[in-house]
Amino acid sequence: MKNSVDSKLLLGLLVGAAVGAAIGYLAATDKKEQIIDELNNVVGKVKEGFNSALNKYKCKIDNKVDEIVEDLDNA
User: Fold this and answer.
1) If residue 54 lies in a helix (H) or strand (E), which one and from where to where?
2) What's the average pLDDT block by block, 10 residues per block, for the chain (75 residues)?
3) Buried b (16+ CB within 10 A) or exposed e, 22-33
4) 3-class DSSP state for residue 20?
5) What is the separation of C-alpha 26 from the centre of its chain, rounded to a whole number of angstroms?
6) pTM to 2 decimal places
7) Phi-psi region of 5 (alpha: psi -120 to 50; beta: other; left: phi over 0)
8) C-alpha torsion angle, residues 59, 64, 66, 68 (rounded to 10)
């Protein structure tokens, strides 16, 4: 149990340090507008991919529900 807590704490510290370094880099660089635009593009693509996958999953669920309802009606 203690190992799990220690691992999570270490991971949290590493992620925090990475985010802090990224923010520091953005604040210090002259190209921060370009970097922010590129990050927004990446985030947009990830969001589109997530929404696409979510819609496919929803369609599969809807199809399964329709099949179950049809089976119940035929029973």
Assistant:
1) helix 32-74
2) 72 89 80 82 90 87 86 80
3) eeeeeeeeeeee
4) helix
5) 22
6) 0.47
7) alpha
8) -170
